Amino acid sequence: MSELEGMRRDYEGEPLTLDDMPSEPFTFFNTWLELAIEQEGLDANAMTLATVDSEGNPHARIVLLKGMDQTGLRFYTNYQSQKGNELAQVAKAALVFWWPGLQRQVRVEGRVERVDERQSDDYFASRPRKSQLATWVSQQSVEIPGRGWLEERLARFEQVYADQPVERPPQWGGYRVVPHAIEFWQGQRSRLHDRIRYTRHEGAPDEWYRAQLAP
């Protein structure tokens, strides 16, 4: 435990000020994401997805951001998974991006909706064939007897789709997190970090309120 207590780093990033921030958060997020992809590589689009079940118990896991525009942030998964079941009951979620090399963090909070089937079809068609087959193999979050069970199912679906394209399973598709708040965090010296939070105006979804928060 003493080793954990002594583990720390000091941060030193470019300052964030309200005067430097655009009127809406998506442009700035995209700038940060592009730089993260350059410096952090293939893990730059990894994000923690937090959901709650019907009793209010929180659950979190890492998923991948697979699209973003002014309507929200997209990821794809099995609708019948634990997170899918939770989102069907409580259609709200939080996302966290952490880019250690840049000493930056982004938090997103909002409601969640399914993307339309065509968008799910288009993304599914772009995936490698093995990833497509995996969506049929895995009954996500279901208890299984062992890895052999997965390998047997994979062999079965490889035969089923041996001479044809793999179709998207109806239980698999995309979600969109529609933010009502996005916060940008930049590490600074002495733990006096910069935090800028955007909050969507109620009744005016295209307008955002900006505020600088204490660390």
Give a brief outline of the structure.
The protein has one domain: Electron Transport, Fmn-binding Protein, Chain A (Pnp Oxidase, Chain A, Roll). The protein is 29% helix and 35% strand. The protein has helices at 2-6, 25-40, 82-89, 117-126, 129-137, 147-160; strands spanning 46-52, 58-64, 67-69, 72-78, 92-99, 104-114, 172-186, 194-201, 204-213.
Instruction: Give the C-alpha Rg.
Output: 20 Å
What would the average pLDDT be, to the nearest integer? 95
Q: How many E strands?
A: 9
Name of the CATH homologous superfamily: Electron Transport, Fmn-binding Protein, Chain A
- Tell me the CATH architecture: Roll
Question: What do these coordinates show?
Answer:
The chain is of the alpha+beta class and 215 residues long. The chain has a single domain (8-213), classed as Electron Transport, Fmn-binding Protein, Chain A (Pnp Oxidase, Chain A, Roll). Helices cover 29% and strands 35% of the residues. It is built from 6 helices and 9 strands; from the N terminus they run H-H-E-E-E-E-H-E-E-H-H-H-E-E-E. The chain has helices spanning 2-6, 25-40, 82-89, 117-126, 129-137, 147-160, and strands at 46-52, 58-64, 67-69, 72-78, 92-99, 104-114, 172-186, 194-201, 204-213. Strands 1, 2, 3, 4, 5, 6, 7, 8 and 9 form a 9-stranded antiparallel beta sheet that branches. Strand 5 (92-99) and strand 6 form a beta hairpin. The chain is globular, with a radius of gyration of 20 Å. The protein starts with a helix and ends with a strand. The mean pLDDT is 95.
